Amino acid sequence: MSSTLLEVTRGAHEEVERLERLIVKDLQNEPASSKERLAQSHRVRLMIDTVTSTTERLIEIYEDNDNARKDEIAALGGQTATGTNVFSAFYDRLKEIREYHRRHPAALVVDANEEHEALLKEEPQVEFSGEEAYGRYLDLHELYNQYINSKFGEPIEYSAYLDVFSQPHKIPRKLKSTRQYREYLENLVQYLVYFFHRTEPLQDLDRIFAKVETEFEEQWADGKVEEWENAIQDGEHVQDQQTVIDLDYFSTVEELVELGPEKLKEALASLGLKIGGTVQQRAERLLLTKDTPLEKLDKKHFAKGSRGSAQNRAAVAPQQVGMLIEIALLEAKLKKLSDLLSEAIERTKDNIVKKQALTYEEIAAEREDEETQADTESDDDEQQIYNPLKLPMGWDGKPIPYWLYKLHGLGQEFKCEICGNQSYWGRRAFERHFKEWRHQHGMRCLGIPNTKNFNEITSIEEAQELWKRIQARQGVNKWRPDLEEEYEDREGNIYNKKTYTDLQRQGLI
After folding, report:
1. Whether the Cβ atoms of residue 41 and residue 201 lie closer than 8 Å to each other
2. What string of DSSP letters covers 7-46?
3. How far apart are CA 69 and CA 5, in angstroms?
4. DSSP assignment, residue 358?
C-alpha cells in the first residue's frame, strides 16, 4: 500500500521535517564536556547527510524523467485509456486498501518519533589514537619521522617540528621539486583533513578548499603566490633527477639497470648526457647525477652541443609546471588547515613540553585522570550558583568559605615570568609552584640551578642578575651541587644531591 510513488514522496517529506526538528533539539542541549560535544557534532552531521540524500531523492521524483509520477496522479483522478471515471478509480483504491489490511490484520503503526528520538542518545564511534586523546592533540609522529629522514628536512626534536611543519616556505624551493617532498606534503595534508573531519564534522571543508583553490589560481596567474613568484619565468626547473627518473629511490647501478635501456636513454637525453653504451654504462652515467650537479660533471659525459642547453633551459617542461602547481596548491591547503587547527596545534605543543618534564608513571596517571574526568562530567554544573563575591570554587564545586578566602589570600594573583607568565591564585599556590615541573623546567632553560636562593624570584632578569652575583661571590667553580642542588622524589620530597644519592643507594627512595 505504501509502495506508491506519492506515498514515498510524502514519507520522504515527513522524514526531512522530523530530522530538522531533531537537529534543532539536539543543538539546544549544551554539551557538558568536549567528548559529548564531539558526539553531538557527529550525530548532527549524520542527520544532515540523511536530509541531503533524502532531498536528492525527492528532486529525482519531482523531475519525473520517466513520467511515473504524472501517470500515478492521472490514475488517482480516474483517467484511463477509455476516459475518465472518478468513482471507478476511488473504489479500486478502496478495494486495494481493504485487501492490504485483510492480509495484514496484525499490522502495527510504527511511531517514527520514538525511532528518531533514539538517535539523540546514540554516541557515534569516532576513532582516535591514544596520542590524539579524543581529538585534543595532533599525532604527527609518522610524518615527523618522514620529515627528519628526508633530504628537505633536518634532524630536530618533535616539539620543534610542531613549529615548522606549518611553515613550508622555510624549505628551499630547489628541495621542493622532488617526489619525496610531494609525497610527504600529500600525507601531511591527508592526515590534517582526516583529523579535521573527525574533530569538526559540521564544517564544510570542501567549500573551504574550493575558495582556497579559486584564490590560488588567481594568485598563480598573477605570479603572486608566496615563495613561488615568477617560478616559471625565472626558468626554475625540477631537480635534474626528477625529469624522468627519481634517483631518490635508487642507490645502486643494478637497480637502475632493471628499468631498461629505453628508460635510461630518455633520462640521459633530458639531461643532455651521452645516450650511447651498454645498459650498465648508461646506468653508471645516470647515477653520477644523483650526488653531483651537472655543472661539476666532466665534459666527457655530455653530448656535443648539449651541455649549455642542459644548464640554461629557459622554461619548465609542461609536466614539470603541473607538478610545481600541484605542490604550491598543497602548501596553500596546508596553511589553511594550520589556521583552522591552530588551537589544537597549540594544545599539542603545550602537551609535548609538559610531557618532557614528567615520568612515564606520571604521564599514564594524567591520561587516566583525563579520561575519568571526561566520563564523569555531567550537566549538574549547569545550575546557577549564587556567588556574589566571586569566591574560588572548592573541591565540591561550591564557593569556599569567606574566612578561608581571607586567611590564605586566595584572591591575590601572582604571576611568574619564568613559568611563561603563568598566574597563581593565592599565596599557598604561589609558594608551591617553585617545586613544580613548570618552574623547574624554566630554570633549567635559563641555565640556573633551582635552589632555595631563588625562592620568591619570578622575573627572568632578576634571576639572571642574582645568579651572576652568586657566581661573582663564590666563583663559577665553587658552587657546591652536592649541598645546593635540589632533587625531588616521586612523593614530592625535596633533598639535596648528596642526601638524595645516599638514600637512593640504600634503596630507601
Report:
1. yes
2. HHHHHHHHHHHHHHHHHHHHHHSPPSSHHHHHHHHHHHHH
3. 6
4. S
Q: What is the pLDDT of residue 238?
A: 44
Q: Are 35 and 194 in contact (CB under 8 A)?
A: no
- pLDDT tens string 131-190: 888 888 888 889 889 888 888 888 888 888 888 888 888 888 777 777 888 888 999 999
Do 381 and 32 touch, CB atoms closer than 8 A? Answer: yes
Q: Is the pLDDT of residue 61 over 50?
A: yes
CA distances from 422 to 202, 416, 417, 464, 488 (A): 34, 6, 7, 19, 22
Least confident residue range of 98-102, 234-238, 351-355, 476-480 = 234-238
Chain-centroid distance, C-alpha 216: 22
For the ranges 196-210, 214-228, 494-508, the lowest mean pLDDT is seen at 214-228
Helix residue ranges, H only, 106-252: 112-117, 141-148, 158-164, 179-199, 205-222
Q: Pseudo-torsion of CA 16, 18, 23, 24, nearest 10°? A: 120
Comparison of pLDDT for 427 and 138, the residue scoring more: 138
End-to-end CA distance of the chain: 80
Q: Which residues pair with 84 in a beta bridge?
A: 79
Cite the DSSP H helix spans in 317-401.
Answer: 318-340, 342-356, 360-376
Q: What are 192's three cell numbers?
A: 590534517
- Identify whether the C-beta of residue 68 lies closer than 8 Å to the C-beta of residue 62: no
Nearest to 274 by CA among 290, 286, 263, 262: 286
Tell me the C-alpha distance between 369 and 358, whole Å. 15
Residue whose cell numbers read 640504600: 506
Cell, residue 462: 632578576
Within 13 Å of residue 349, how many CA atoms lie on the same side as its CB? 12
- Nine cell digits for residue 287: 647515477
pTM of model > 0.85: no
Extract the C-alpha cell encoding 132.
590524539
**What is the rounded CA–CA span in Å between residue 465 and residue 118?**
66
Cell numbers 542518545 correspond to 121
Element (H, E) at 244: none
